[in-house]
Amino acid sequence: MTGFTRKLLVVLLINVFAFNVGAFAEEGKNGEGTKEELTLSQKIDNKFRPVVDAIAAVLFVDPFEKLGLHDPTVRDSAGNPVINAKGEIVTHQIPLVVIWLISGAVFFTLRMKFLNIWGVKHAIALVRGVYDNPDDEGEVSHFQALTTALSATVGLGNIAGVAVAVSLGGPGASLWMVVAGLFGMTSKFVECTLGVKYRTIGFDGRVSGGPMYYLSRGLEKRNLKWLGKILAALFAVLCIGGSFGGGNMFQANQAFAQFSGEFTFMQDHGFWFGVVMAVLVGIVIIGGIRSIAKVTDKIVPVMVASYVITAIIIIGMNWANLGEGFAAIWNGAFDADALKGGFLGVLVTGFQRSAFSNEAGVGSASIAHSASKTNEPVSEGIVALLEPFIDTVVVCTMTALVLIFTGFADGGPESLEGSELTAAAFSSVFPWFKYLLIIAIVLFAFSTMISWSYYGLKSWTFLFGQSKAAIVSYKVLFLLFIIVGASSSLGAVLDFSDMMILGMAFPNILGLYFLVGEVKKDLDDYFKRIKTGEIKRFK
């Protein structure tokens, strides 16, 4: 990116900031000109709400409804609209962003001839280090790259997302989450293979890679340099916004909400909670991807293992009912009269929660995988297959079974939602689990923040260069946003930033359609060399 373009972006950012700050002075005046007292959080929230609504109108538009192909309103047997506990009409929208993510995942799976099934065995061998060559370029091992990427996806999406899907669409929604996760495995393969193939390695050995690089450099090879630059820049801007919001402020905000909800003495002390989190995150991210990987490859396995083991124990206690549990999931997935929305509502609910949970197709994971120590891009792509499998197929399925066995699949006696519903289900068997879950949520939030700090930094340096000043400025901003997120209720800002993460899927998948052909050729060549022994085993 040219120096002029960087300066232009900085000027635009400054002007946007100045506009919002100046607009605060006009905020809160009624028709008579009297001024109402608004907190800073409320002022910011009010300025971002129109932007959020505008983005939602694109990301969550239902094209089938616009074309008159289906009625999104859920109706009972008498044809009357179904009303939920909040007095709202229940609908089953088919959001554009979900269609975009799922259609891409299905296409890539067919193009790679179901690599998501037959490639898992080889992926496990790669994670075990069987093919690790100590002389390969990169910064982290296959396993560390996997855990770094997993740390950004395994978390509230699994704890809360499954509960949301099951409470809205019944047990059958979890099956469609798994189906979407299986297809999403191939999206991760394609983007992470390209991430390594088009990465750049500096003189100091530090790696930069991800959609910004394979979109710009890959499309340039196809005489589409102009399109590559546009898509790469768009992705980088969205990724930076997503790193500050969905990957940072939202995590800090939710972690504090869970922590202070159980330990009431912490209420109204979000600022200090944010300061502590910022210091801890700062200690880790100062060291770059090597430091991040050393933390995530310890935290993620422990978090996932503790959660899964507890779920397995509860499932084991209900072993006699295991068949009935799976039957409830299977029947609910295909039952036209399924809870709140019929077959279409159940399918869309499962696909939507899966897409939001594992981020397959968003492109963020390829930034972490680009740093892997390998000279074989396809090998890292195959390792990435395991992410949606662990995130969605394993963790989400176990969560769904626990909800079913404990009787909370219908929302529970108090109509709880999200992580509260999951916590209530686990705690009904083990009362102490709520404390473990609080610790897990805080750790999930912590690991997500440090991973997204890396994603955002790589996008930032792609736009503004690799200078020390650019790197330090991003890290300082990132740490400040942790404090803001923990101490504020910036609903619209958090929604806006979370939507930016979903928005990353549009430039990313569009570029993948152009590049998927070369990935298929590389895949065929890779396994040909595996069979001939050209690619050697080291263990």
From TrEMBL:
<keyword id="KW-0812">Transmembrane</keyword>
<protein>
    <submittedName>
        <fullName>Alanine:cation symporter family protein</fullName>
    </submittedName>
</protein>
<feature type="transmembrane region" description="Helical">
    <location>
        <begin position="299"/>
        <end position="320"/>
    </location>
</feature>
<dbReference type="GO" id="GO:0005886">
    <property type="term" value="C:plasma membrane"/>
</dbReference>
<keyword id="KW-1133">Transmembrane helix</keyword>
<feature type="signal peptide">
    <location>
        <begin position="1"/>
        <end position="25"/>
    </location>
</feature>
<feature type="transmembrane region" description="Helical">
    <location>
        <begin position="500"/>
        <end position="519"/>
    </location>
</feature>
<keyword id="KW-1003">Cell membrane</keyword>
<feature type="transmembrane region" description="Helical">
    <location>
        <begin position="270"/>
        <end position="292"/>
    </location>
</feature>
<feature type="transmembrane region" description="Helical">
    <location>
        <begin position="476"/>
        <end position="494"/>
    </location>
</feature>
<dbReference type="InterPro" id="IPR001463">
    <property type="entry name" value="Na/Ala_symport"/>
</dbReference>
<dbReference type="Pfam" id="PF01235">
    <property type="entry name" value="Na_Ala_symp"/>
</dbReference>
<feature type="transmembrane region" description="Helical">
    <location>
        <begin position="89"/>
        <end position="110"/>
    </location>
</feature>
<keyword id="KW-0813">Transport</keyword>
<keyword id="KW-0769">Symport</keyword>
<keyword id="KW-0472">Membrane</keyword>
<feature type="transmembrane region" description="Helical">
    <location>
        <begin position="226"/>
        <end position="250"/>
    </location>
</feature>
<dbReference type="GO" id="GO:0005283">
    <property type="term" value="F:amino acid:sodium symporter activity"/>
</dbReference>
<keyword id="KW-0732">Signal</keyword>
<feature type="transmembrane region" description="Helical">
    <location>
        <begin position="435"/>
        <end position="455"/>
    </location>
</feature>
<comment type="similarity">
    <text>Belongs to the alanine or glycine:cation symporter (AGCS) (TC 2.A.25) family.</text>
</comment>
